[in-house]
Amino acid sequence: KILILGACGQIGVELTLALRARFGDSNVVASDLRPEVHPLLAGTGPYYTVDATDIKAVADIVNKEKITQIYLLAALLSATGEKMPLKAWDINMNSLLQVLELGVEQKLTKIYWPSSIAVFGTTTPKQDTPQKTVVEPTTVYGISKYAGELWCQYYNRRYGLDVRSLRYPGLISWKSAPGGGTTDYAVEIYHEALKHKAYTSFLSENTYLPMMYMDDAIRGTIELMEAPEEQIKSRMAYNLSAMSFSPAEIAASIQKHIPDFSISYAPDFRQAIADSWPSSIDDAAARADWHWKHEFDLEKMTAEMLQHLSA
Ligand code: VAH
């Protein structure tokens, strides 16, 4: 039975839906800070309001629901993290450390914890960033994600805990809204294109970033978690990649559907965060170890996003 912490977030909603479709609604327990469950999850399975850093409350759910796996998605992302560094560190790290400890105590069979390409910094090779390279994160979010990867590897080596992780690129989804990320422009742009046929990007036009459609990210997560343990060669997070594009390129892909859509640029504090990240990622390890392959490119994603958002 799976417990999802942070089930109402951008990834959480989609992962909860996908796991419930796979294992049955009652076998996937959703939880988040908010008192009301996300509308898309309402009535489809158990929900608890819980703070992922309150390990006693989390342990109570684990015992009550006989949980055997935890997916810990609760976190403050890059842009929010820069506004409240110590809170971001506290939420991102204390939730993880307590869940890892609980995993050992309760002998959980598997734990999932997302990392991000945000672990890479300005000293990392920017193109085709390898799985193993210089990793010097410059945001609190990136620092917490890399530190978290090292803790996951520690708990696997020391206690044999089967904890797995992925370095997600920017994720684009329509079912759930992103929150506090630097790549969120790539979600906002579709909503604005349909509403106003115009969008002002907070990243400059040639800011190339690794990106992925949410369907690919969810499928990759489930494929990673279901891979036989002996295929998991890295207990740091796996690089995961699909495509890279810039605001100018995503705007051009939208203009193929909405010819009079226009984009303007007003870079803000998030530009410096984006500039510290790679432009493209080498995910050869994921492709070799557990046969990862992406399915959505920019054109296919834009068609899907506009179709679903205008339905
Ligand atoms: C963020 N969406 O912008 C997240 C992600 C690589 C970006 O980690 O912070």
TrEMBL record:
Instruction: Return the SUPFAM superfamilies for the record.
Output: NAD(P)-binding Rossmann-fold domains
Q: Where is the NAD-dependent epimerase/dehydratase domain?
A: 2-239
Q: Which residues form the signal peptide?
A: none
Give the transmembrane region(s).
none
Q: Which InterPro entries match?
A: Epimerase_deHydtase, NAD(P)-bd_dom_sf, NAD(P)_epim/dehydratase
Q: Which domain of life is it from?
A: Bacteria
Family membership: Belongs to the NAD(P)-dependent epimerase/dehydratase family.
Protein name, entry field: NAD-dependent epimerase/dehydratase family protein
Origin organism of this chain? Rurimicrobium arvi
The record lists the lineage as: Bacteria, Pseudomonadati, Bacteroidota, Chitinophagia, Chitinophagales
